[in-house]
Amino acid sequence: MRIYSAFFDYYDSVASSWADDDTQYRRVETIVELTSALAVELGCPEVKAPSWQWTEGARMLMALIGFCGRFYPYVLATNADGSQQFLQTFPEVTSWDPVARYLERQRRHRWYKHREPELLFLETPPPPNDAPFLALGVPLFHVFWQEEPNEGRRRTYRRWLTTNAFLRPLEFYRVVDAQTAYQEIERYLANTLTSHDEPSDIADTDKLLQHGFDKRLSFRKGKPLPPPRAD
């Protein structure tokens, strides 16, 4: 597989040991806002909105990586000092220091019984489904929530989807190793996506626009670009 990209991901090093150049992967990141209606249209699994905050300035955001027909949820944990951790399992969440201290103090509080099912989605990820990958025409994507600037006390968030996402900063190598990731992407492009391609060569951006997305592009890791100013 030959990869054309503006960034070097963790599985790219495997390309030098594989001689098959028949499959091409044009890895361009496209960042779009993912509304609930469009998520349903694409068949994208639900990623719950942030609904609670932690004491001491720490907080969590739920996110999801779609990879070759399968889905890998995780939690982005932000500490009070601004440092971040990628928590990929329920035990990792409950052992994260702010959560562990909170649960130690309020183990019998109704919060625990209420929130535990939401976090257990890490242990029971959505079932495999090719639909969103076929609709987007890509082997992988990233769904995440981002906090919006707000002068009030209440935090507001918007949900975004990045196609062909940069996986190294997301520590996805802890879930799928480099060689396996490379091979799965190559097979998915050559088999699943190629067999469903339309006769014309439609760019990823155009496919997104066909589903009603606003177009915002980025070649690096993903913060949405600001909307254009009104004249």
Q: What is the strand and helix layout of this fold?
A:
Layout: E1 2-5, E2 24-27, E3 30-33, H1 36-42, E4 59-67, E5 70-78, E6 84-87, H2 90-95, H3 97-105, H4 110-119, H5 131-136, E7 140-148, E8 156-163, H6 178-195, H7 204-210, E9 216-217
Parallel strand pairs: 1-2
Antiparallel strand pairs: 3-8, 3-9, 4-5, 4-7, 5-6, 7-8
Sketch the topology as an H/E string, one letter per element: EEEHEEEHHHHEEHHE
Low-confidence parts: 197-201, 215-229
Proportion of residues in helical segments: 25-40%
Sheet of most strands: 7 strands, antiparallel
Q: What is the number of helices?
A: 7
**Gyration radius from CA atoms, angstroms:** 19 Å
Side-by-side strand order of the widest sheet? 6-5-4-7-8-3-9
Number of strands: 9
Approximately how much beta-strand content do the residues carry?
Answer: 15-25%
Class inferred from helices and paired strands: alpha+beta
